[in-house]
């Protein structure tokens, strides 16, 4: 059974050693805090060991982030990989006709609906962890942001108002050079 937004991994969970491979593509439509320019695309693989479900993915997208200095929007290509393990409890149906195995997670946000991976929730976690912490327009803290005559860039160069007095004191004491 195919349901929108879910990847059915039950076959891997019930048959340890069987590898499932999926081509994934998601717009992350429900996300308000991530500005995607391109959908998240890539490949996802799942295999069960009997006690663990191993999920690996190689993914990419293009997103908009803010410059950490001047808050200008920046387009960033993000390539990321995910390598996750989820506990499996129960006896796989391949070993017992009257039982089945199921994925157990302790995540605060649900990642599984029975043995189906909630794709957008999984991709969102990986993308958020892979976004750059402090992107810069110029690419370097030593180089000012392009077009930084006004706004936040000028405020960074002026420094904190409490330190202006210290700067003036230093300039007053530099008479010998």
Write the layout of secondary structure elements.
Blueprint: E1 6-8, H1 10-14, E2 19-26, E3 35-48, E4 52-66, E5 73-90, E6 101-104, E7 112-113, E8 116-118, H2 119-130, H3 151-158, H4 161-172
Antiparallel strand pairs: 1-8, 2-3, 3-4, 4-5, 5-6, 7-8
Low-confidence residue ranges = 149-157
Rounded radius of gyration (Å):
25 Å
Number of helices: 4
Can you count the beta strands? 8
Biggest beta sheet summary: 5 strands, antiparallel
End-to-end Cα distance, whole Å, is 80 Å
SSE series? EHEEEEEEEHHH
- Let me know the average pLDDT: 81
Describe the structure.
With 177 residues, this protein is of the alpha+beta class. It is 21% helix and 38% strand. The chain is built from 4 helices and 8 strands. Strands 2-3-4-5-6 form a 5-stranded antiparallel sheet. The longest helix has 12 residues, at 119-130. Mean pLDDT is 81; it is low at 149-157.
List keywords for this structure.
three-stranded antiparallel sheet, 177 residues, 21% helix, alpha+beta, five-stranded antiparallel sheet
Short description:
With 177 residues, the chain is of the alpha+beta class. Helices cover 21% and strands 38% of the residues.
